[in-house]
Specification:
Distance between the termini: 77 Å
Number of strands: 4
Helix content: over 70%
Number of helices: 39
Oligomer: single chain
Strand content: under 5%
Strand order of the largest sheet: 1-2
């Protein structure tokens, strides 16, 4: 069920992206339906979950040798957050279907993709029962928020970067915590790690993890002193803000705190950090909200304040406090999603969010006003809404947190101040945005009030209903809070690590909490009536800087520091760049010399005569290459040295390695020839002294490398790992080509990483060559060899043209054959791609002119397809255990036999696509097959000369 739920959430992303191409913003309805169905399915399973074992687990192997798996766990806490993530997500998606522009040029594919990936990452986060998986989804939420903010216009770049810096810092803290937990408890399973005895026996470990987890959660949930990014991120569209504040980004931090509460709730440092930071944030956010006139900014600081209350409750750490935190989280998700959607409606219909400009919207937008009243009163904690109950029980937990009596008085007084400010800014929203009331007297008449339309109409049902539903739920669930007892009790119990039954009541009698609530309302009304005086007071800046200024100074300072440090070593001089590996080689050589007495036992007394012959051939190619001044001659000699090395591999029996070396050398020569056409024919002269110094360094480094190689490898017997591959490769993989099975079976994940590197390198290559001009050719009047830049239709040399015509297709077909047989005989995806690349290179060289030279294959699409094919083949591995584990596939043949292969062949196909794409890109991009800056005038001149002839 859980794996299917996660996959279904990802499927909603793909389906919606495809739908946007056809129906544009209306794809939001499809996304809303998908998330609503998933939320309903979770809701239908709740009775079974809460009445049964209380926990549902699923495990899909991922990296078995590292004990890392796709472990998913659904308990009361995860179920609560899952309903919030999917339910609020469905409402926001439906809201987006009418909030976004309906212009056909705006398909909004990127918006829906990142928003739904946000829902997917949050789903994975709350279901994860593996620390590695938890961290992966945690970081994915960070990336989703960054891209959603960054794509919001020109002004969004700086806020997006600041948000990324703050939240990424929290991600590093979580990573350190994960490493500590795994190292100390010996498991990556979250539920097992939380039950380890290490939390009670090792106080240093517990305190360190408590600080790291608190830091990670506080950055995500915008707690002081990391609160600045949340209001800064308000440049994002209102639906993004609604989801981020109500159900996604900030709720991830709350979930993380509650997830680790069973192990950390009794830790003093944990309690101190969360309660102190939470209450400071609650008051600070509320005060900042009272200073703002933009409805969206008021909402942003309101979120900061409300999250502070929740964090403080988690810090208290008792089962009842954690259950209250769960109830408060649900209430906050409902009223905050409704209020943010209202802000978007007001902004669209009235053209402004400034409460100094808005007038009388309650008459022209009555339904929107009702939604705002319901959600606002719930936020303010007014009877009988759900927010009232959560606030009442919050006050109760603050009064009796445990410990000395003065502590309860201090916490309760602080909570009353924060709640009073909450009531005050709620009145600021309702009165300032929807009535003509402006405080003790009308003010701000000098503002440019004509910016608001003279007539503002009510929004349509498509955009108002998604905002109305959570507001109504807040009203219904207040009197019917008993319906929430099983879910909230299970959530609080999971956060406390015990079985817990929640009991909340709308009216608990004449209690201290009720008296405090009445006091809060009274003080709030006084504050609202004195709004004008408060506005004048808040106009004064207490500090000459803001929190955003601090983050920006840190960011620019780090960039400046990095530049200065880089300047110390930034140079184009090759000796400086080579100095570091030379020094490292020297250190390794010292270690090799220390074991030099053992060399006699390592090196066999007699070497085969082939080694001496091949060494002589190497000297015959390397020495002239060092002496010659001709670039072309040097290239030929260096290529010859590479061919000798390939022969050496063949002589040693390493057929696959030899083929790779041979083909790489061949294609490297072709690529370098394309570059040499744009360089001088000879190298520049150097002095005798420099030649002597460089020769000495080269010989010394070569000698050191030889000593190191002989000392650390020599001619030892085969290693245990190598013997295992020889003995077990066929049993484990069904393949007899040991090299290929290692690449695509045993270490397929590493090969997939290399495949990704190839794709990135190709993208960089194409991007750099497209953005920067390359040198013009130095021989524009020569006939076409190696892709000359002539524009006229001149025949190339006859032999290569004839050979290329029949040989190039044969070589490409041969590469397909090598791909298919690679699992059993020398070949495989990489070698096959290199062979196919030589076929394309031959076809390129045999072209009659520059116009006919380009290889008309979509190398950009091939590059992407290579990575996609690799991923798809890896996903199939989940069917038999883990990602990229080969799956056996048998295809029945018409004559009764079966043709069998594994998904490793499909993975190899991805490698083939990517490598071939790189080769074609090099041929086309470096071969001068299109006009580039710096070449146009020369080509035009050649054309004019041709016409004259």
């Amino acid at each position: 069920m859980l794996t299917a739920l996660l996959v279904a959430t990802l499927a909603v992303v793909v389906i919606t992206m495809v739908a946007t191409v056809v129906i544009g913003r209306n794809a939001g309805w499809i996304a809303a339906a998908g998330l609503a169905v998933l939320a309903t399915l979770v809701g239908l399973r709740l009775p079974e979950l809460l009445d049964g074992p209380g926990v549902v687990r699923e495990v899909v192997p991922w990296m078995p040798t590292l004990d890392v798996a796709l472990r998913l766990r659904l308990d009361g806490l995860a179920a609560l957050f899952l309903l919030i993530v999917l339910g609020i997500g469905a409402l926001v998606m439906a809201y987006s279907a009418r909030y976004l522009s309906d212009m056909t040029v705006h398909r909004h594919t990127g918006y829906f993709a990142w928003m739904l990936l946000f829902a997917f990452s949050m789903t994975g986060l709350v279901l994860a029962d593996d620390l590695v998986l938890l961290f992966v989804f945690w970081e994915l939420t960070t990336l989703c928020s960054f891209f959603l903010i960054n794509r919001s216009g020109r002004r969004a770049s700086a806020p997006a970067v600041r948000t990324l810096l703050v939240t990424a810092m929290g991600g590093l803290a979580l990573l350190f915590a994960v490493v500590l937990i795994v190292a100390r408890t010996g498991t990556t399973v979250v539920s097992d790690a939380l039950q380890s005895d290490a939390w009670q026996t090792d106080s240093g470990f517990t305190a360190a993890v408590a600080v790291l987890i608190a830091l990670a959660a506080m950055t995500k949930s915008a707690q002081f002193p990391f609160h600045m990014w949340l209001p800064d991120a308000m440049v994002a569209p209102t639906p993004v803000s609604a989801y981020l504040h109500a159900a996604a980004m900030v709720k991830a931090g709350i979930y993380l705190l509650m997830l680790f509460s069973p192990a950390l709730a009794a830790t003093v440092v944990w309690q101190s950090i969360l309660v102190t930071s939470g209450l400071i944030t609650a008051i600070m956010g509320a005060v900042f909200a009272l200073r703002r006139f933009d409805l969206k900014e008021i909402m942003a600081y309101s979120t900061v304040s409300q999250l502070g209350f929740i964090v403080a409750l988690i810090g208290i750490g008792t089962p009842s406090a954690l259950a209250t935190a769960a109830l408060y989280t649900l209430a906050h998700a409902l009223f905050k999603s409704a209020l943010f959607m209202v802000v978007g409606i007001v902004d669209q219909r009235a053209g402004s969010r400034d409460i100094r400009l808005l007038r009388g919207l309650r008459r022209t937008m009555p339904v929107t006003f009702v939604v705002t009243v319901l959600a606002g009163l719930s936020m303010a904690g007014v009877f009988p809404l759900l927010g009232f109950i959560s606030k009442e029980y919050l006050l109760g937990q603050m009064i009796e947190p445990g410990g000395p009596a003065w502590l309860g008085i201090l916490l309760a007084a602080t909570a009353v101040i924060g709640a009073t400010a909450t009531f005050a800014y709620t009145g600021r929203i309702l009165l300032g945005g929807f009535t003509d009331y402006r405080g003790s007297e009308r003010v701000d008449d000098d503002l440019d009030t004509h910016r608001m339309p003279q007539y503002v109409s009510e929004a349509g049902p498509g955009i108002i209903v998604p905002a109305l539903l959570p507001a109504l739920l807040g009203l219904v669930l207040g009197p019917a809070v008993v319906w929430l007892h099983p879910l909230i009790g299970a959530a609080g119990g999971a956060a406390a690590g015990i079985s817990y039954s929640a009991t909340f009541a709308l009216f608990g009698g004449l209690t201290v909490e009720l008296a405090l609530s009445i006091t809060i309302i009274a003080l709030g009304l006084v504050t609202i009536s004195r709004r004008r005086a408060l506005d004048r007071l808040f106009e004064r800046r207490i500090l000459p800087f803001t929190a955003i200024d601090v983050v920006e100074r840190i960011r620019t300072g780090l960039i400046s520091l990095g530049s200065r440090v880089g300047d110390l070593t930034r140079t184009d001089a090759q000796p400086v760049h080579l100095a570091t590996p030379w020094a490292l080689l020297g250190v390794v050589a010292l270690a090799a010399i220390a074991i030099a007495p053992a060399l006699g036992e390592i090196v066999e007394p007699g070497e085969p005569w082939t080694d001496a012959l091949l060494l002589a051939l190497l000297l015959a190619t390397v020495v002239p290459a060092v002496i010659t001044r001709s670039r072309l001659t040097a290239l030929i000699l260096v290529g010859g040295a590479g061919f000798v090395v390939a022969l050496w591999f063949f002589a040693l029996g390493a057929i696959d390695v030899g083929l790779t070396q041979l083909l790489v050398e061949l294609l490297t020569v072709v690529a370098l020839v394309l570059i040499l056409r744009r360089l001088p024919a000879v190298f520049h002269r150097v002095t005798r002294s420099r030649q002597f110094i460089t020769a000495t360094i080269a010989l010394a480094v070569g000698a050191l490398a030889t000593v190191v190689t002989l000392a650390f490898t020599g001619r030892r017997d085969i290693s245990a790992a190598g013997q295992y591959f020889l003995d077990e490769a066929y049993t484990d993989t069904g393949g007899t080509n040991i090299v290929n099975t290692i690449l695509v079976d045993y270490r397929a994940l590493d090969t997939f990483g290399e495949l990704t590197v190839i794709a990135v390198a190709g993208i960089v290559l194409m991007g750099v060559l497209a953005a920067r001009p390359i040198l013009p050719e130095r021989t524009p009047d020569m006939r076409a060899w190696a892709g000359t830049a002539l524009l006229r239709e001149a025949d190339n040399t006859l032999p290569i043209r004839v050979v290329a015509r029949w040989a190039a297709p044969v070589i490409i077909v041969l590469s397909i054959y090598l791909l298919l047989r690679g699992h059993y005989e020398p070949g495989g995806g990489f070698i096959a791609a290199l062979v196919g690349g030589t076929g394309f290179a031959l076809a390129y060289l045999g072209a009659s002119s520059d116009r006919r030279a380009p290889v008309r294959w979509p190398y950009r699409a091939l590059l992407s397809a290579g990575v996609v094919v690799g991923v798809v083949s890896g996903i199939g591995g989940y069917l038999v255990g883990s990602f990229l584990k080969p799956v056996r596939i048998d295809i029945p043949l018409p004559w009764g036999d079966e043709y069998g292969f594994t998904s490793a062949l499909i993975f190899d196909l991805g490698v083939y696509f990517a490598v071939v794409a790189i080769i074609i890109a090099v041929l086309n991009e470096l071969g001068g097959v299109r006009d580039r800056p710096g070449e146009v005038s020369e080509r035009a001149g050649s054309r004019d000369q041709e016409v004259a002839r």
